[in-house]
UniProtKB/TrEMBL annotation:
Residues 556-720 form the Helicase C-terminal domain. The keyword Secreted does not apply. It holds the Pfam family TRCF. GO terms for biological process: regulation of DNA-templated transcription; transcription-coupled nucleotide-excision repair, DNA damage recognition. GO terms for molecular function: ATP binding; damaged DNA binding; DNA helicase activity; hydrolase activity. The keyword DNA-binding applies. This is Transcription-repair-coupling factor. Keywords: ATP-binding, Cytoplasm, DNA damage, DNA repair, DNA-binding, Helicase, Hydrolase, Nucleotide-binding. It comes from Thermotoga petrophila (strain ATCC BAA-489 / DSM 13996 / JCM 10882 / RKU-10). The gene is mfd. GO terms for cellular component: cytoplasm.
Length: 893
């Protein structure tokens, strides 16, 4: 029997024991594609029902009434692929089935073809499948992992389902092949939500409503539904997040940094013929020259990460680059010296050891409704270890909004309270204070922890009462703004101070924080992600915890740029409200807000709409934002003043109705207000009729800021740049810009090692120069078609320190692209020769037809070779064999 649990809306979609069948996240006739995750989930469930599986489904009446393709269509367009049979699946057929052709398969509904290898990610499969052909026969079927792109499990057959979303004459119930049972906890609530949705859809679609929805389903449900009690609370297991591939790989036309020569433009990979062979080079354009860098030296060239508008191309024939590096090194040394002195002072101070209560803390951890990410778990352990030690904690916890910093702060606060100490949580604004207060109160109250809020929303009498209770020890955790730093406020026994966004406080408050750090435990939260390399470099000098993993399941924001129309706004708002979400509507002219408000009220009379702007009193604005955060307001009409720091995961549609008035960076920041949950978010940037062409061009650029492509990369790098400023002081920003973030981090690490250990860290690398290597060795374009992927393989080969690394890369190439051609095998042999030569202390090898000349270092065994010539400092050998193979055999012996 199939069991269907009816939900009022899609907010409670994760219910233990039930598979969620989502409704479409786009409206009929809307010019927006259905999100791949939702499409895949719907097709998978329909297929399972069609095959007679007795499954338990949680869904809404809206989803049940949506029309879909027929069971016959699904059956006829599904293919079983079996090993040792002929493949009948062409690229054209896959496109007809709704699949999108890409280079690297990462999402459901994608396929890739590379020679005799076909990758497909079909709905219904936990992993994408790799099909290897011999001619037109299927030789092998393997499942592979998205993050590594490596195969891990063989199969004899696999099912490929169609990936299309069509409106037909069927509904989900037509796919059920067994008996069905409908259950519901609150039928009235389910019906109220459905009727509201039906009215909105009828108003929007008018006479075409019945083309998309079948109301007979509601009659079937009402006749058979049973009342049942179902727990909607569940511990949600977070999905693995997709890797963001190649964010640091150099791109044609982009700025790069060469360690020895400075900043240039990368003009692509060129293939040049030498005296004895042919290989690939990186072409770098400087202000006064062009440099060709052999591909084995790609590790000396990396992407420039900084502010391109503030840099000039370097000149190869001047010493300016060396002067720049010297200045950066001197500035870093000065800053590191200050950090070392501060760190030593803290080491001498005696802190408060907070041992905690393991049993209570375990129960508190279990009340967290998610599975901790590895970064988050490590941060919790680091903070709790600090609190248990004798030294006062001074730890900076970094990570973007929504990655789970608050949970780390909650665990720290709970440890302090069960150790008999008080906690103060300092935040820069009252809106954030209120948000923290509600989070802390919700989690702590069941454990008998007394949490209070001290901010401008409290009356004078309430403030006085709170201050008295703090002094007597009747409050365990106090949350507030800078007023908590007032000299009048006394604590009974303060053990931990949590500071959120310290950089937003004034100079006076920051000085107070410095004094605090020497006497109590301090945990500082920063919404700026710190680059992992910088975190590692500074560990042992400044206590860091870093949560870098983007929240698993987070989806890219769908950006829609169009001319304003009432129908467009109506569709966007209705879609969001119907899935239980909220809308942020931005109009940046305060004097026009009443007019816009009246218009929205006429369009949506049944919705709760509120207005917020900078000219209203602070208390009123904060109350409105707070009500929106609580979910009591459906649409917030506002100017751009709503803070970035306030996290409203349920607001996943943004409408900017005068987008032509903003700069690109402003629009990008606005876009960041939505998309903070695992739901797909929409950002509508609308402009009026008659908008100048120049403004439209700027808006079109926003389309390239969608998905995990260039826009996210820019955002990540911008955050990393800000991260350097947060840790070392903003005056370091200029140094980062002048040499790029990557080289800056390397100089920083070298300087710290020298200060901390009194030595310069020796880098392990293969640094053997090979002159006139014979043969054709490169990665052909028809073998690895994507230029970024080719560069990635070149970089991995060049940075390999052991022959095992090369074998691993070769195996990956075979798995993903099929049998490597001769050029690739020769390329791997070339890098193998460099590794062997490096281990034997060889600095240079020169080929000249049948002659091979080896130049050894001082500690090389080749100095004892009978043919070693002291005058030339080399060993000259002759061979009739392949010179590379001859040398490799010689060095192996």
């Amino acid at each position: 029997m199939v069991e269907i649990l009816l939900l009022p809306n899609e907010r409670f979609s994760n219910i233990e024991g039930y598979i969620f069948y989502p409704s479409r996240d786009v409206l009929p006739l809307e010019d927006v594609v259905l999100s791949p995750e939702i499409k895949g989930k719907r097709i998978e469930i329909l297929w399972r029902l069609l095959n007679g599986e007795n499954i338990k489904i949680a869904t809404t009446l809206k989803a049940l009434t949506e029309k879909v393709f027929s069971p016959d269509f699904l059956r006829e367009n599904s293919l079983m692929i079996t090993r040792s049979t002929k493949l009948t699946l062409s690229p054209e057929r896959l496109v007809e089935m709704g699949y999108e052709r890409v280079f690297t398969v990462q999402n459901v509904g994608e396929f890739a073809i590379r020679g005799d290898i076909i990758d497909i990610y079909s709905p219904g499969n936990d992993f994408p499948v790799r099909i290897e052909l011999f001619g037109d026969e299927i030789e092998e079927i393997r499942f592979f992992k998205v993050d590594t792109q490596r195969s891990f499990q063989s199969a004899d057959k696999t099912l490929i389902l169609p990936f299309v979303d069509l409106y037909g004459e069927s509904t989900l119930l037509d796919f059920v092949k067994t008996d069905v049972r409908f259950i519901c906890e609150d039928l009235q609530k389910v019906l109220d939500e459905y009727r509201k949705f039906r009215k909105e859809m009828r108003d929007l679609l008018k006479e075409r409503y019945n083309d998309f929805f079948d109301e007979r389903v509601v009659e079937v449900v009402l006749k058979n539904v049973e009342k049942a009690s179902v727990s909607l609370s569940t511990r949600i297991e977070k999905k693995e997040s997709l890797p963001i591939l190649d964010v640091d790989e150099i791109e044609e036309g982009g700025l790069v940094v060469h360690r020895e020569h400075g900043i240039a433009i990368f003009e692509g990979v060129v293939r040049l013929k030498g005296v004895l062979g042919e290989r690939d080079y990186l072409k770098l354009k400087y202000e006064d020259a062009v440099l060709y860098v052999p591909i084995e030296k790609i590790d000396r060239v990396h992407k420039y990460i900084g502010d391109p508008s503030q840099v000039k191309l370097d000149r190869m024939n001047r010493g300016k680059w060396k002067q720049t590096l010297k200045k950066v090194r001197e500035d870093i040394e000065k800053k590191i010296r200050e950090l070392v002195e501060l760190y030593m002072k803290r080491q001498e101070a005696q802190g408060l050891s907070l041992p905690g209560d393991p049993e209570l803390e375990e129960k508190f951890a279990e009340s967290f409704p998610y599975i901790e990410t590895p970064d988050q778990q490590q941060s919790i352990e680091e903070v709790l270890y600090d609190l248990a030690s004798e030294k006062p904690m001074d730890r900076l916890l970094c990570g973007d909004a929504g990655v789970g910093k608050t949970e780390v702060a909650l665990r720290a606060a709970f440890r302090a309270v069960v150790s008999g100490k008080q906690v103060a949580v300092l935040v820069p604004t009252t809106v954030l204070a209120r948000q923290h207060y509600e989070n802390f109160k919700e989690r702590m109250e069941t454990f008998g922890v007394k949490v209070e809020l001290l901010d401008s929303s409290r009356t004078a009498r309430e403030k006085k009462e709170i201050i008295e209770k703090l002094k007597k020890g009747e409050i365990d955790i106090i949350i507030g703004t800078h007023s908590l730093l007032n000299e009048r406020i006394e604590f009974s026994d303060l053990g931990l101070v949590i500071i959120d966004e310290e950089q937003k406080f004034g100079v006076e408050q920051k000085e107070r924080f410095k004094k605090l750090r020497l006497s109590v435990n301090v945990l500082t939260l920063s919404a700026t992600p710190i680059p992992r390399t910088l975190h590692m470099a500074l560990s042992g000098m400044k206590d860091f915890s870093v949560i870098n993993s983007p929240p698993p399941g987070r989806k890219p924001v769908y950006v829609y740029v169009a001319e304003y129309s009432d129908d467009l706004v109506k569709g966007a708002v209705i879609r969001e409200i119907n899935r239980g979400g909220q809308v942020i509507y931005v109009h940046n002219r305060v004097e026009e807000l009443p007019e816009v408000f009246e218009k929205l009220k006429r369009m949506f009379p049944e919705l709760e709409i509120a207005v917020a702007h900078g000219k209203m009193s602070r208390r009123t604005m904060e109350r409105i934002v707070h009500e929106f955060y609580r979910g009591n307001i459906d649409v917030l009409l506002c100017t751009t003043i709503i803070e970035n720091g306030v996290d409203i995961p349920n607001a996943n549609t943004l409408i900017v109705d005068d987008a032509h008035r903003y700069g690109l960076s402003q629009l990008y920041q606005l876009r960041g207000r939505v998309g903070r949950s695992d739901r797909r978010a929409f950002a509508y940037f609308l402009y009026p009729k008659g908008t100048p062409r120049s403004a439209l061009e700027r808006l079109k650029v926003l389309k390239s800021y969608t998905g995990f492509g260039s826009g996210l990369q820019i955002a990540l790098k911008d955050m990393e740049l800000r991260g350097v400023g947060d840790v070392l002081g903003l005056e370091q920003h200029g140094n980062v810009v002048s040499v790029g973030l990557k080289l800056y981090n390397e100089i920083l690490k070298e300087t710290i090692t020298r200060f901390r250990e009194g030595r310069i860290e020796k880098k392990h690398s293969v640094n053997v120069e090979i002159e006139n290597p014979p043969g054709r060795f490169f990665i052909p374009e028809d073998y690895v078609q994507n230029p970024v992927e080719r560069l990635r393989f070149y970089r991995r080969l060049a940075s390999s320190l052991a022959e095992e690394d090369l074998e691993e890369i070769l195996e990956e190439m075979k798995d993903r692209f099929g049998e490597p051609p001769t050029e690739v095998k020769l390329l791997v042999d070339y890098f193998r020769l460099r590794i062997r030569a490096s281990k034997l202390g060889v600095k240079k090898i020169r080929f000249d037809h049948s002659m091979v000349e080896i130049f050894p270092n001082r500690d090389s065994p080749f100095l004892n070779h009978p043919r070693y010539n002291r005058r030339s400092g080399s060993v000259v050998l002759y061979t009739r064999e392949n010179p590379v193979e001859f040398l490799m055999d010689l060095m192996k012996k």
